[in-house]
Amino acid sequence: MIEARSLTKRYGSKTAVDDLTFSVQPGVVTGFLGPNGAGKSTTMRMAIGLDRPTKGKITVNGRAYRDFSAPLCEVGVLLEAKAVHTGRSAYKHLLAVAQTQGIPRRRVDEVLGLVGLSDVAGKRVGGFSLGMGQRLGIASAMLGDPGVLILDEPVNGLDPEGIRWIRTLLQTLAAEGRTIFVSSHLMSEMALTATHLIVVGRGRLIANTSVEDFIRSASGDLVHVRSPQAGRLAEVLDRENAKTTPTGLDTLAVNGLTSQRIGDLAFEAGIPLHELTPRQVSLEDAFMDITRDAVEYNHGQPQPPRVPAAATAAGGAADQGSVGAGATTARGQA
Ligand SMILES: Nc1ncnc2c1ncn2[C@@H]1O[C@H](COP(=O)(O)OP(=O)(O)OP(=O)(O)O)[C@@H](O)[C@H]1O
Protein backbone atom coordinates (compact mmCIF):
# COMPACT_ATOMS: atom_id res chain seq x y z
CA MET A 1 0.00 0.00 0.00
CA ILE A 2 1.10 3.56 -0.71
CA GLU A 3 -0.12 6.33 1.57
CA ALA A 4 0.23 10.08 1.15
CA ARG A 5 -0.73 12.32 4.05
CA SER A 6 -0.85 16.10 3.60
CA LEU A 7 1.91 15.65 1.05
CA THR A 8 3.24 19.01 -0.10
CA LYS A 9 6.20 20.03 -2.25
CA ARG A 10 7.25 23.58 -2.99
CA TYR A 11 10.01 24.66 -5.32
CA GLY A 12 10.61 28.27 -4.29
CA SER A 13 7.28 30.02 -4.77
CA LYS A 14 5.94 27.17 -6.95
CA THR A 15 3.74 24.63 -5.16
CA ALA A 16 4.09 21.45 -7.23
CA VAL A 17 2.17 19.20 -4.81
CA ASP A 18 -0.40 20.73 -2.53
CA ASP A 19 -1.61 18.90 0.57
CA LEU A 20 -2.34 15.56 -1.11
CA THR A 21 -3.91 12.82 0.99
CA PHE A 22 -4.73 9.47 -0.60
CA SER A 23 -3.95 5.80 -0.38
CA VAL A 24 -3.22 3.29 -3.11
CA GLN A 25 -4.55 -0.18 -2.33
CA PRO A 26 -3.10 -3.55 -3.30
CA GLY A 27 -4.89 -5.84 -5.72
CA VAL A 28 -6.00 -3.23 -8.22
CA VAL A 29 -4.39 -0.92 -10.75
CA THR A 30 -4.66 2.67 -9.52
CA GLY A 31 -4.36 5.34 -12.18
CA PHE A 32 -2.73 8.63 -11.23
CA LEU A 33 -4.19 11.16 -13.62
CA GLY A 34 -3.72 14.82 -14.21
CA PRO A 35 -2.88 17.32 -16.91
CA ASN A 36 0.74 18.23 -17.63
CA GLY A 37 2.40 19.88 -14.65
CA ALA A 38 -0.24 18.59 -12.21
CA GLY A 39 2.38 17.19 -9.84
CA LYS A 40 2.25 13.48 -10.70
CA SER A 41 5.97 12.97 -11.24
CA THR A 42 6.84 15.03 -8.19
CA THR A 43 4.53 12.89 -6.05
CA MET A 44 6.09 9.71 -7.42
CA ARG A 45 9.59 11.06 -6.90
CA MET A 46 8.77 11.74 -3.26
CA ALA A 47 7.37 8.21 -2.90
CA ILE A 48 10.77 6.79 -3.81
CA GLY A 49 12.90 9.28 -1.93
CA LEU A 50 14.18 11.27 -4.93
CA ASP A 51 12.58 14.42 -3.54
CA ARG A 52 11.82 15.39 0.04
CA PRO A 53 8.36 16.65 0.92
CA THR A 54 8.19 20.24 2.13
CA LYS A 55 5.37 19.05 4.41
CA GLY A 56 3.52 15.80 5.04
CA LYS A 57 4.72 12.37 4.02
CA ILE A 58 4.34 9.50 1.62
CA THR A 59 5.03 5.93 2.66
CA VAL A 60 5.21 2.56 0.94
CA ASN A 61 3.98 -0.33 3.05
CA GLY A 62 4.02 2.00 6.03
CA ARG A 63 7.66 3.04 5.70
CA ALA A 64 9.63 5.81 4.04
CA TYR A 65 11.51 4.59 0.98
CA ARG A 66 14.87 5.43 2.51
CA ASP A 67 14.18 2.97 5.35
CA PHE A 68 14.16 -0.06 3.04
CA SER A 69 17.40 -2.06 3.11
CA ALA A 70 16.60 -3.69 -0.28
CA PRO A 71 14.20 -1.20 -1.91
CA LEU A 72 14.04 -3.06 -5.25
CA CYS A 73 12.43 -5.99 -3.44
CA GLU A 74 9.78 -3.71 -1.90
CA VAL A 75 8.95 -1.28 -4.68
CA GLY A 76 9.67 -1.36 -8.40
CA VAL A 77 9.96 1.95 -10.16
CA LEU A 78 9.77 3.16 -13.74
CA LEU A 79 10.42 6.86 -13.92
CA GLU A 80 12.46 7.41 -17.02
CA ALA A 81 12.81 4.50 -19.37
CA LYS A 82 15.86 5.98 -21.03
CA ALA A 83 17.92 6.24 -17.83
CA VAL A 84 20.13 3.28 -18.72
CA HIS A 85 23.71 2.80 -19.87
CA THR A 86 23.18 2.65 -23.64
CA GLY A 87 26.44 0.78 -24.35
CA ARG A 88 25.41 -2.24 -22.28
CA SER A 89 23.26 -5.14 -23.34
CA ALA A 90 19.84 -5.52 -21.77
CA TYR A 91 21.11 -8.57 -19.87
CA LYS A 92 24.19 -6.77 -18.53
CA HIS A 93 22.13 -3.76 -17.55
CA LEU A 94 19.69 -5.87 -15.55
CA LEU A 95 22.50 -7.94 -14.05
CA ALA A 96 24.26 -4.79 -12.86
CA VAL A 97 21.05 -3.57 -11.20
CA ALA A 98 20.40 -7.01 -9.67
CA GLN A 99 23.89 -7.23 -8.21
CA THR A 100 23.50 -3.97 -6.29
CA GLN A 101 20.85 -5.64 -4.13
CA GLY A 102 21.86 -9.27 -4.02
CA ILE A 103 19.19 -10.39 -6.49
CA PRO A 104 20.16 -13.76 -8.04
CA ARG A 105 21.26 -13.96 -11.70
CA ARG A 106 18.41 -16.31 -12.65
CA ARG A 107 15.93 -13.54 -11.85
CA VAL A 108 17.43 -11.53 -14.74
CA ASP A 109 16.41 -14.29 -17.16
CA GLU A 110 12.98 -14.45 -15.56
CA VAL A 111 12.21 -10.75 -15.97
CA LEU A 112 13.59 -10.73 -19.53
CA GLY A 113 11.09 -13.49 -20.30
CA LEU A 114 8.32 -11.66 -18.45
CA VAL A 115 8.67 -8.55 -20.63
CA GLY A 116 9.37 -10.44 -23.86
CA LEU A 117 12.99 -9.33 -24.31
CA SER A 118 14.73 -12.74 -24.06
CA ASP A 119 15.56 -12.79 -27.75
CA VAL A 120 17.29 -9.42 -27.67
CA ALA A 121 18.91 -9.81 -24.23
CA GLY A 122 22.41 -9.61 -25.76
CA LYS A 123 21.71 -6.49 -27.85
CA ARG A 124 22.97 -3.05 -26.88
CA VAL A 125 20.30 -1.01 -25.14
CA GLY A 126 21.31 2.01 -27.23
CA GLY A 127 19.72 0.37 -30.27
CA PHE A 128 16.40 -0.31 -28.54
CA SER A 129 13.16 1.23 -29.74
CA LEU A 130 11.09 3.27 -27.31
CA GLY A 131 8.82 0.28 -26.75
CA MET A 132 11.75 -2.03 -26.01
CA GLY A 133 13.15 0.60 -23.66
CA GLN A 134 9.85 0.69 -21.78
CA ARG A 135 9.87 -3.11 -21.54
CA LEU A 136 13.41 -3.00 -20.20
CA GLY A 137 12.37 -0.36 -17.65
CA ILE A 138 9.56 -2.62 -16.47
CA ALA A 139 11.92 -5.61 -16.33
CA SER A 140 14.18 -3.53 -14.13
CA ALA A 141 11.26 -2.53 -11.90
CA MET A 142 10.27 -6.21 -11.57
CA LEU A 143 13.76 -7.50 -10.73
CA GLY A 144 13.21 -7.66 -7.00
CA ASP A 145 9.71 -9.18 -7.43
CA PRO A 146 8.29 -6.22 -5.50
CA GLY A 147 4.79 -6.02 -4.06
CA VAL A 148 4.49 -2.39 -5.11
CA LEU A 149 5.05 -0.88 -8.57
CA ILE A 150 5.26 2.84 -9.32
CA LEU A 151 5.25 3.63 -13.01
CA ASP A 152 5.37 7.15 -14.43
CA GLU A 153 3.69 7.35 -17.87
CA PRO A 154 4.68 3.81 -18.94
CA VAL A 155 2.63 3.95 -22.14
CA ASN A 156 4.14 7.19 -23.40
CA GLY A 157 5.11 6.84 -27.03
CA LEU A 158 4.12 3.19 -27.31
CA ASP A 159 2.30 1.69 -30.25
CA PRO A 160 -1.14 0.09 -29.71
CA GLU A 161 0.36 -3.39 -29.30
CA GLY A 162 2.80 -2.11 -26.64
CA ILE A 163 -0.01 -0.27 -24.85
CA ARG A 164 -2.14 -3.40 -24.80
CA TRP A 165 0.79 -5.42 -23.52
CA ILE A 166 1.44 -3.04 -20.59
CA ARG A 167 -2.27 -2.92 -19.79
CA THR A 168 -2.50 -6.71 -19.55
CA LEU A 169 0.74 -6.98 -17.58
CA LEU A 170 -0.34 -4.40 -15.00
CA GLN A 171 -3.72 -6.06 -14.55
CA THR A 172 -2.07 -9.44 -14.12
CA LEU A 173 0.38 -8.07 -11.56
CA ALA A 174 -2.47 -6.40 -9.65
CA ALA A 175 -4.46 -9.64 -9.67
CA GLU A 176 -1.49 -11.23 -7.93
CA GLY A 177 -2.15 -8.84 -5.06
CA ARG A 178 0.44 -6.18 -5.86
CA THR A 179 -0.07 -2.45 -5.46
CA ILE A 180 0.13 -0.84 -8.91
CA PHE A 181 0.33 2.97 -9.10
CA VAL A 182 0.58 4.22 -12.65
CA SER A 183 0.49 7.79 -13.92
CA SER A 184 -0.89 9.03 -17.19
CA HIS A 185 -2.42 12.13 -18.69
CA LEU A 186 -4.66 9.98 -20.91
CA MET A 187 -8.04 9.35 -19.36
CA SER A 188 -9.19 6.89 -22.02
CA GLU A 189 -6.13 4.74 -21.50
CA MET A 190 -6.50 4.75 -17.73
CA ALA A 191 -10.17 3.85 -17.98
CA LEU A 192 -9.16 0.64 -19.72
CA THR A 193 -6.23 -0.16 -17.45
CA ALA A 194 -7.14 1.04 -13.96
CA THR A 195 -9.87 0.15 -11.49
CA HIS A 196 -9.32 3.14 -9.25
CA LEU A 197 -8.38 6.73 -10.11
CA ILE A 198 -6.60 9.48 -8.24
CA VAL A 199 -6.91 12.70 -10.22
CA VAL A 200 -4.80 15.78 -9.51
CA GLY A 201 -4.62 19.26 -10.97
CA ARG A 202 -2.14 21.95 -10.01
CA GLY A 203 -0.89 19.72 -7.26
CA ARG A 204 -4.29 19.33 -5.63
CA LEU A 205 -6.56 16.34 -5.28
CA ILE A 206 -9.48 16.58 -7.69
CA ALA A 207 -10.93 13.09 -7.48
CA ASN A 208 -10.28 9.83 -5.68
CA THR A 209 -12.78 7.35 -7.01
CA SER A 210 -13.36 4.07 -8.81
CA VAL A 211 -13.28 4.27 -12.59
CA GLU A 212 -16.87 3.04 -12.55
CA ASP A 213 -18.04 5.89 -10.32
CA PHE A 214 -16.01 8.40 -12.30
CA ILE A 215 -17.77 7.35 -15.49
CA ARG A 216 -21.16 7.32 -13.82
CA SER A 217 -20.81 10.72 -12.20
CA ALA A 218 -19.25 12.22 -15.30
CA SER A 219 -22.11 11.06 -17.47
CA GLY A 220 -24.54 12.59 -15.00
CA ASP A 221 -28.30 12.28 -15.22
CA LEU A 222 -28.95 14.55 -18.16
CA VAL A 223 -31.45 13.08 -20.60
CA HIS A 224 -32.35 14.42 -24.02
CA VAL A 225 -36.08 14.06 -24.80
CA ARG A 226 -38.05 14.74 -27.97
CA SER A 227 -41.83 14.87 -27.93
CA PRO A 228 -44.56 16.61 -29.97
CA GLN A 229 -46.00 17.58 -26.56
CA ALA A 230 -42.73 18.83 -25.05
CA GLY A 231 -44.46 21.64 -23.12
CA ARG A 232 -46.91 19.28 -21.44
CA LEU A 233 -44.17 16.79 -20.73
CA ALA A 234 -42.10 19.53 -19.06
CA GLU A 235 -45.03 20.26 -16.72
CA VAL A 236 -45.30 16.58 -15.81
CA LEU A 237 -41.59 16.24 -15.18
CA ASP A 238 -41.34 19.49 -13.24
CA ARG A 239 -43.97 18.15 -10.84
CA GLU A 240 -41.50 15.32 -10.13
CA ASN A 241 -38.84 17.91 -9.23
CA ALA A 242 -36.90 17.40 -12.46
CA LYS A 243 -35.16 20.36 -14.02
CA THR A 244 -36.31 20.71 -17.61
CA THR A 245 -34.78 23.06 -20.16
CA PRO A 246 -36.28 23.50 -23.65
CA THR A 247 -33.53 22.96 -26.21
CA GLY A 248 -35.69 23.25 -29.35
CA LEU A 249 -39.32 23.39 -30.48
CA ASP A 250 -39.99 19.79 -29.44
CA THR A 251 -36.94 18.91 -27.36
CA LEU A 252 -36.04 19.10 -23.67
CA ALA A 253 -32.90 18.58 -21.61
CA VAL A 254 -33.96 16.89 -18.38
CA ASN A 255 -31.92 16.75 -15.20
CA GLY A 256 -32.77 14.79 -12.11
CA LEU A 257 -34.68 11.80 -13.52
CA THR A 258 -33.50 8.63 -15.21
CA SER A 259 -34.56 7.97 -18.80
CA GLN A 260 -36.58 5.02 -17.51
CA ARG A 261 -38.54 7.23 -15.10
CA ILE A 262 -39.13 9.86 -17.79
CA GLY A 263 -40.43 7.18 -20.15
CA ASP A 264 -42.78 5.81 -17.48
CA LEU A 265 -44.12 9.27 -16.57
CA ALA A 266 -44.71 10.13 -20.22
CA PHE A 267 -46.54 6.83 -20.73
CA GLU A 268 -48.74 7.40 -17.66
CA ALA A 269 -49.63 10.89 -18.94
CA GLY A 270 -50.32 9.61 -22.46
CA ILE A 271 -47.57 11.78 -23.94
CA PRO A 272 -45.83 10.31 -27.02
CA LEU A 273 -42.03 10.29 -27.03
CA HIS A 274 -39.98 10.37 -30.21
CA GLU A 275 -36.58 10.30 -28.55
CA LEU A 276 -35.26 9.49 -25.07
CA THR A 277 -31.45 9.57 -24.86
CA PRO A 278 -29.31 9.55 -21.70
CA ARG A 279 -26.48 12.01 -22.20
CA GLN A 280 -23.14 10.27 -22.75
CA VAL A 281 -19.85 12.04 -22.33
CA SER A 282 -16.59 10.58 -23.47
CA LEU A 283 -14.17 9.91 -20.67
CA GLU A 284 -11.69 12.29 -22.20
CA ASP A 285 -14.38 15.01 -22.15
CA ALA A 286 -15.21 14.20 -18.54
CA PHE A 287 -11.56 14.38 -17.61
CA MET A 288 -11.08 17.67 -19.46
CA ASP A 289 -14.16 19.00 -17.77
CA ILE A 290 -13.11 18.05 -14.28
CA THR A 291 -9.53 19.27 -14.70
CA ARG A 292 -10.22 22.27 -16.93
CA ASP A 293 -9.44 24.92 -14.37
CA ALA A 294 -6.51 22.96 -13.06
CA VAL A 295 -4.60 22.92 -16.34
CA GLU A 296 -1.38 24.92 -16.06
CA TYR A 297 -1.11 25.88 -19.70
CA ASN A 298 -4.15 25.73 -21.96
CA HIS A 299 -2.23 26.60 -25.13
CA GLY A 300 -4.16 29.86 -25.41
CA GLN A 301 -7.28 28.01 -26.48
CA PRO A 302 -10.58 29.59 -25.52
CA GLN A 303 -12.34 27.57 -22.84
CA PRO A 304 -15.85 26.39 -23.78
CA PRO A 305 -18.58 26.93 -21.21
CA ARG A 306 -18.99 24.22 -18.62
CA VAL A 307 -21.68 21.63 -19.18
CA PRO A 308 -23.75 20.79 -16.13
CA ALA A 309 -21.93 17.50 -15.70
CA ALA A 310 -22.45 15.66 -12.50
CA ALA A 311 -18.71 15.03 -12.40
CA THR A 312 -18.50 17.84 -9.88
CA ALA A 313 -21.63 17.03 -7.99
CA ALA A 314 -20.53 14.36 -5.57
CA GLY A 315 -18.64 15.69 -2.60
CA GLY A 316 -16.59 13.54 -0.29
CA ALA A 317 -13.61 13.05 1.89
CA ALA A 318 -10.08 13.50 0.70
CA ASP A 319 -9.38 9.80 0.95
CA GLN A 320 -11.24 6.99 -0.79
CA GLY A 321 -14.23 7.68 -2.95
CA SER A 322 -14.52 11.36 -3.63
CA VAL A 323 -15.16 13.03 -6.93
CA GLY A 324 -15.14 16.74 -7.19
CA ALA A 325 -14.46 17.72 -3.61
CA GLY A 326 -11.00 18.92 -4.58
CA ALA A 327 -12.27 20.22 -7.89
CA THR A 328 -14.30 22.80 -6.07
CA THR A 329 -11.19 23.84 -4.21
CA ALA A 330 -9.10 23.96 -7.35
CA ARG A 331 -11.70 26.01 -9.18
CA GLY A 332 -12.34 28.26 -6.27
CA GLN A 333 -8.76 29.14 -5.58
CA ALA A 334 -6.74 28.53 -8.71
N1 LIG B 1 12.83 20.66 -9.79
C1 LIG B 1 11.85 21.52 -10.01
N2 LIG B 1 12.01 22.85 -9.83
C2 LIG B 1 11.03 23.72 -10.04
N3 LIG B 1 9.77 23.38 -10.45
C3 LIG B 1 9.54 22.08 -10.64
C4 LIG B 1 10.55 21.08 -10.44
N4 LIG B 1 9.99 19.87 -10.71
C5 LIG B 1 8.71 20.10 -11.06
N5 LIG B 1 8.44 21.42 -11.03
C6 LIG B 1 7.13 22.05 -11.33
O1 LIG B 1 6.17 21.43 -10.53
C7 LIG B 1 4.96 21.26 -11.25
C8 LIG B 1 4.58 19.79 -11.24
O2 LIG B 1 5.48 19.09 -12.09
P1 LIG B 1 5.41 17.52 -12.33
O3 LIG B 1 6.50 17.16 -13.28
O4 LIG B 1 5.36 16.82 -11.02
O5 LIG B 1 4.00 17.38 -13.03
P2 LIG B 1 3.40 16.16 -13.86
O6 LIG B 1 1.99 16.04 -13.45
O7 LIG B 1 4.26 14.95 -13.70
O8 LIG B 1 3.46 16.69 -15.33
P3 LIG B 1 3.87 15.95 -16.69
O9 LIG B 1 2.71 15.10 -17.06
O10 LIG B 1 4.06 17.12 -17.62
O11 LIG B 1 5.14 15.21 -16.41
C9 LIG B 1 5.21 21.83 -12.64
O12 LIG B 1 4.75 23.16 -12.65
C10 LIG B 1 6.70 21.79 -12.78
O13 LIG B 1 7.15 22.81 -13.62
Automatic annotation (TrEMBL):
<dbReference type="GO" id="GO:0016887">
    <property type="term" value="F:ATP hydrolysis activity"/>
</dbReference>
<dbReference type="InterPro" id="IPR003593">
    <property type="entry name" value="AAA+_ATPase"/>
</dbReference>
<dbReference type="Pfam" id="PF00005">
    <property type="entry name" value="ABC_tran"/>
</dbReference>
<feature type="domain" description="ABC transporter">
    <location>
        <begin position="2"/>
        <end position="227"/>
    </location>
</feature>
<keyword id="KW-0067">ATP-binding</keyword>
<feature type="compositionally biased region" description="Low complexity">
    <location>
        <begin position="308"/>
        <end position="321"/>
    </location>
</feature>
<keyword id="KW-0547">Nucleotide-binding</keyword>
<keyword id="KW-0813">Transport</keyword>
<feature type="region of interest" description="Disordered">
    <location>
        <begin position="298"/>
        <end position="334"/>
    </location>
</feature>
<comment type="similarity">
    <text>Belongs to the ABC transporter superfamily.</text>
</comment>
<dbReference type="GO" id="GO:0005524">
    <property type="term" value="F:ATP binding"/>
</dbReference>
<protein>
    <submittedName>
        <fullName>Export ABC transporter ATP-binding protein</fullName>
    </submittedName>
</protein>
<dbReference type="InterPro" id="IPR027417">
    <property type="entry name" value="P-loop_NTPase"/>
</dbReference>
<dbReference type="InterPro" id="IPR003439">
    <property type="entry name" value="ABC_transporter-like_ATP-bd"/>
</dbReference>
